[in-house]
Queue: 4 jobs
Job 1
Amino acid sequence: MLGIGVVGYGYWGPNLVRNFMEVDGSQVITVCDLRGERLAEAKRRYPSLHITREYRDLLDNPAIDAIAIATPVSTHFPLAMAALRAGKHVLVEKPLAASSEEAEQMIEAAEQRGLVLMVDHTFIYTGAVRKIKELIDNNSLGQLYYYDSVRINLGLFQHDINVLWDLAVHDLSIMDFIVQAQPSAVSCTGMAHVRNQPENVAYLTCFFDHNFIAHFHVNWLAPAKIRQTIIGGDRRMIVYDDLEPSEKVKVYDKGITLNGNPDSVYQLLVNYRSGDMWAPQLDRTEALRTEALHFIECVNTGQTPLTNGFVGARVVRILEAASQSLAQRGRPVELREGWLTQA
């Protein structure tokens, strides 16, 4: 039985506690939070829990094998490093860290001690995203052309991070998982409409070395909630709507065919292909439950997590470059292995 400690019982912490309480193979022992009212709520729901305001209590407890961190991004690095140094496996809420340098230090600390470091990219464990990955891997879409994502809503405004680090991180992690390629450069524009607060709307474009492009629109100040991604290939296209209750993934047999001489604008003929649409059956298991079981399995067997530290670091590196471009009104920023240079 894997002993779990959870630090942070705000928005996401209760979901972590519930899932680690309910799945086989783990038991939440202690919840840590600085707010007394949140600790009281945790104790009311789970009377067997030990509650504390002192993080050191989790580190010093030999019954706790792993710590799940659900706190503000700026605290991920010090809390995770303290846990790793104390010999605890670590699950960190997205994004992994506030910088790629911090992420790399966390990876190194976990590797040196033979501990599991996993980032909570929850969407990777949904039936919808796993099905999209399966379709792309078996070449159902053919050559990928583009990835176009919209993730907008009214709120929740964050005070410590901008909308990219809050919302785009989800779609970047999905893209990283299904595309299996890293962008060569990024460009980002956006704006803050609330005084003295971070940017609440942003448009991020990722450029790749091959004929593929990705675009992300994120917004905290939209009148409607939209969670939609379109992935286009030369054979088929996918519409993924996370708010759709039943058919979240729809595959369209649509596209174009080219006839004539492609080098001559006068001889090139573009024909449009419009075939069937079908919605594949999806696994409807709660993503966080699947993720919790995977974390337990990785700790028990030593296997590498699907959303390991390197995955988290890749996403953080893109977010860093996007923030750099955003500060310069969209000036492209190139990504190289381990470092960034302006384009």
Job 2
Amino acid sequence: MAEFTPLSALIGGCLIGGAAGLLFWLDGRIAGISGIFGGLVEAGAGDRYWRVAFLAGLVLGPLLHAAVTARPPAFVVTPSLPLLVAAGLLVGFGTRLGHGCTSGHGVCGLARLSRRSLVATLSFFASAVVTVFVARHILGG
């Protein structure tokens, strides 16, 4: 894991919060990634453009960072492909079950003081803590 850099974390948090706030204030929409991505299938032509632009920003942001700082973001993926596929399917199932994802509930829902989002976010993080503990300390991964 890379070292903690408070300034970049603060800037990133402000950008995420600003983007979520603008989307809500200007268009009345929640910046939940699972809903934005899932809505691409059912979206009409006018609704599709902003969704594609939002998702493109998620991909282009790290590339822009790499171009500006002359170094790519550092991350390492060590699990096997079947484990990643299983994890992705579980996350997809969880977002449907919880009617949203960490971005929709954790960023936008908590900002709106939604009790449902508070419960969902606490559930997400509790599940993450248990998963990491089992994977690292019980299974030895």
Job 3
Amino acid sequence: MVTENGIVIKTGQNIAWVKTIRTSACEGCASKESCESAKEGQVEAVNTVGAKQGDAVVVGFDTGSFVKISMLLYLFPVFSMIAGAIIGSHLAPIYGFDNTNCTATFSFSFLFLSFLLIRFISGRLSGDRKYQARIVKIRRSVPLTEEACNIRA
């Protein structure tokens, strides 16, 4: 299970919005300043442990689900683009098109279609609990300050 520490900044019915905190694993990384995942963020998590606003919590995500989503987001578009290029290069001679233009057109068309498919699939997966972050445990209760939540009046 992939876990991250955070502070609950808002709660709803069985949902909590958690401000994640950069972990110590990020401190040794040379790319930490330019990495989007190393910056503080906010995640919506399923709250089955009853965490309240101001609680320091551990947010978890199933490793298997994390790998599947990562492959969908990163590998699927690349493979789609490669498949489009292969199809385009095979169809160009059959229909008498320029090989380079046909390959590029099919390649980018398949890439665009992969993004549309990912958008469609992500809408369906967002309702599935196994693909949602969840609060694993409450570490401690901390006083909630305006600075901690980055709330501006």
Job 4
Amino acid sequence: MAKTALFTIGYEGRQLDEFLAILGSNKIDRLIDVRELPLSRRRGFSKTPLAKALAEHGIDYVGLREAGNPHHKRKHELSKAQLLVKYRAHLAKTDGIVERVADEARGHRAVLLCYEADAHECHRSVLAPKVAAKLRCKTTDL
């Protein structure tokens, strides 16, 4: 089995070709979509067209909606910090999410995908370190 490497990426402000080039230059072989709703107004980033584009570049697509932040719908009511606090609580009370993401990443150069360009403003900043700890690897934001 190949050595596991874990990355995160947000597609905010990126075009699909730029996004795919970043994944290719980092030798990503599996993308784990951790959006609760894998839809986007940004061309190419909704689940089906994204999975197709990734497959054309030899990258597996795995959708894990359960790893998404169920509180994202309240982004106009809560600060980003409050949303992350709520996501931490969600992870703490929901069995198996971190393990499921780790299982999908194990043995791959995997990247966790969400929207926000800045990982510190995104739930992947909470999820990725927990997954990395399970995998005994570090995580890098692309």
